[in-house]
Amino acid sequence: MSERISKANELNSEGFNCAQSVVGAFCEKYSIDKETAMKFAGGFGGGLRCGEVCGAVTGAVMVIGLKYGQYLPDDSESKQKCGEITLRFMEEYKNRNHSLLCRELLGYDPRDKEKAEKLQDKKKTICSNAIEMAINILEEMEM
User: What is the mean pLDDT of residues 12-29?
Assistant: First the structure.
């Protein structure tokens, strides 16, 4: 298990969501302070809180943006490269995990508090696997 996966698992076990856990594992590499990272990734867990794109995926896309993202208005080369790498990541994640959607990965809508409570252990396992997969793919892509 890589050092980043260990760090992400630690963050997740502390109560951070999947997006925060993935981004947090890359803070040091990209010189982002943990507080800022946890704040900007905070709303992305639970598939944007409504079962849409998995938080591990959105966290990984944030990491891709940290490395390749456009920050100058006329830098179309960075914009294009970031987009291409993002699509490549998402295609690979979907190939390995069969879905990009949180609710499909979990098998229920995370807004359903009753099911979420009942399936809490299942969620921990699924989320841990999603985080690990996202980081493995990022590391394979040399992020």
Answer: 97
